[in-house]
Amino acid sequence: MQQEIVHLQKEEIKRMKTKHRFFKDKMAVLGCIILCIFIIISILTPSLTTNDPLKVDLMERLNPPSSTYPMGTDHLGRCVFTRVLYGGRTSMTVAVAVLGIVLTIGVLVGVLAGYIGGFVDTFISHIIDILLAFPGLILALAIAGILGPSLINTMIAVAAVQWVGYARIVRGMVLSIKEKDYVKTAKTCGTSHFFIILRHILPNMISPIIVLATLDVGAIILRIAALSFLGLGAQPPTPEWGAMINDGRAYMQTAPWVMFFPGGAILLVVMAFNLLGDGLRDIYDPKNT
């Protein structure tokens, strides 16, 4: 009982130190604030604008920013402000969904390769090496091109490329963790492999995976936007940041706001995720504990 109390006290002290280090990192806090603002805006989008993101009004096409249209209108007279807000919901929702798929596949494959070893590890490692030999965006572009243009196919293409990084890192962590004394002791005591993975291996990987996932969301948003920009992602008239930049490309000289605002939104969100991820990495770095 006494040992359990001491353990809980140590865990509480560790959590307090982690919070303290996080709030001392101004850039990480800034990234967190920016993300919170975007998330709140995405949730409240229907309340923040009364304009229809799909409504076409050619009489209002390419109007500059004004009180009626804070970010101007595009080539079809649609409110850019409204489309940026709804585009944010699309982009971030898709990115989080892809991240969930990638985490599930990457962690599962990495744990299997690292824990089982032998032929399974060799086979999976070769697949990972082959996929990592190709530039991720080019491979995603090829997969999306084969599947056809749609947001769902873009999600599949990005997930098919992105999981390998998680699998490789998780495999390395599992190879290290399974050699620890407490894991060997659990095996000696006849503990099931499933319980060992669930109780001893996965909990020790949570912090690095959280850091990697936070840094990776920005990369996923960029890849989805890039594929949409190339016409392989979200299809008209769906508001999505990459597709909106593509829509404004022809009017870059005469109506730069059509490209500027969705591009700025991508920049801010990706920067925020990177700042937050860098801060979390510094916090969970073993040298800082």
What percent of the residues sit in helical stretches (DSSP H or I)? over 70%
- Kindly state the number of beta strands: 0
CATH-defined fold name? MetI-like fold
Identify the CATH class. Answer: Mainly Alpha
| Coarse structural class | mainly alpha
CATH superfamily: MetI-like
Walk me through the structure.
It is a single chain. The protein is mainly α and 289 residues long. It has a single domain (17-46, 71-288), classed as MetI-like (MetI-like fold, Orthogonal Bundle). 74% of the residues lie in helices and 0% in strands. The chain is elongated, with a radius of gyration of 23 Å. It is found in: Cell membrane. Belongs to the binding-protein-dependent transport system permease family. OppBC subfamily. Its main location: membrane.
Can I get a quick summary?
With 289 residues, the chain is mainly alpha-helical.
Topology (elements, then pairings):
Layout: H1 2-24, H2 26-43, H3 45-48, H4 80-116, H5 118-132, H6 136-147, H7 151-177, H8 181-188, H9 193-201, H10 206-229, H11 241-248, H12 257-284
Helix pairs in contact: 2-4, 2-12, 4-5, 4-7, 4-10, 4-12, 5-7, 6-7, 7-10, 8-9, 10-11, 10-12, 11-12
GO biological process, one term: transmembrane transport
InterPro entries: ABC_transport_permease, BP-dependent_transpt_permease, MetI-like, MetI-like_sf, OppC_N
Organism: Natronincola ferrireducens
